[in-house]
Amino acid sequence: MAANDLVLALTGASGAPYGVRLLEVLLRAGRIVHLVVSPAAVEVIERELDRRVRLDRFALADLLGERAAEVDPEQVRYHHFMDFQAGIASGSFLTAGMIVCPCSMGTAAAIAHGLSQNLIHRAADVHLKERRTLILVPRETPMHVIQLRNLTACAEAGAVVLPAMPAFYTRPQSLQDAIDFIVGRICDQLHIEHHLLPRWSE
Ligand SMILES: Cc1cc2nc3c(=O)[nH]c(=O)nc-3n(C[C@H](O)[C@H](O)[C@H](O)COP(=O)(O)O)c2cc1C
């Protein structure tokens, strides 16, 4: 039974720190994470975090830096973005949900139209068809109507659209606080306990 498993896809929208922080939090919560990284995400990760991920020779330390040493390697199941043989490409492989964080407009469009051109699109398709949790964390501004319609189509098919929009009523003191707000809201959707954000009226 793989119901402890989650799929995390990093795509090429700005916001790599959200995806990396989410990975850390999911691993600390004891979850098994099936990780898929798009080629565009590699570019963004390098630009935003100064880390170079190798898609063909993935090493967790390339993505998490020193924090990789704290992780049980068994918890991370990396899949190449074109590996359609991966379990997560099939509905018969059980998961507790999937998160695309950050989610580019390109990936949102592919999911909205069921294109399944890479493992990220396919796994998202699977989560929708199996009626499982699919969380998309888009980051784009402004958005044109096609992008808005694509996100609407994803939501209509059952996805949770959770834009990377940090709140300010929590009085974030740092960029880390703003990142943790979004990661905390994603964890709320997954029913994962956390203390990443102050809650309203607490
Ligand atoms: C530095 C950088 C920042 C980008 N930021 C965004 C963004 O915030 N949102 C977005 O939708 N696309 C963004 N893009 C464009 C996507 O990476 C591009 O559309 C890519 O084809 C998406 O592919 P993917 O969905 O397979 O990752 C950015 C690209 C680069 C290089």
Q: What would the average pLDDT be, to the nearest integer?
A: 96
Give the N-to-C terminal Cα separation: 37 Å
Number of strands: 6
**Biggest β-sheet: count, sense, barrel?**
6 strands, parallel
Strand order of the largest sheet: 3-2-1-4-5-6
Task: Walk me through this protein's architecture.
There is one protein chain. The protein is α/β, with parallel strands linked by helices and 202 residues long. Helices cover 38% and strands 14% of the residues. The chain contains 7 helices and 6 strands. The protein has helices spanning 16-28, 39-49, 60-64, 105-112, 119-129, 145-156, 175-190, and strands at 5-10, 32-37, 76-79, 98-103, 134-138, 160-161. Strands 3-2-1-4-5-6 form a 6-stranded parallel β-sheet, sandwiched between helices. Helix 1 (16-28) links the parallel strand 1 (5-10) and strand 2 (32-37). Helix 1 packs across helix 7 and helix 4 (105-112) crosses helix 6. The chain starts with a strand and ends in a 12-residue tail after the last helix. 39% of the residues are buried. The model has no long low-confidence stretch (mean pLDDT 96). Flavin mononucleotide (FMN) is lined by residues 11-14, 38, 40-41, 43-44, 47, 104-107, 139-140.
Detail the topology: elements first, then pairings.
Blueprint lengths: L4 E6 L5 H13 L3 E6 L1 H11 L10 H5 L11 E4 L18 E6 L1 H8 L6 H11 L4 E5 L6 H12 L3 E2 L13 H16 L12
Parallel strand pairs: 1-2, 1-4, 2-3, 4-5, 5-6
Helix pairs in contact: 1-7, 4-6
The structure holds flavin mononucleotide.
Flavin mononucleotide binds next to helix 2 and helix 4.
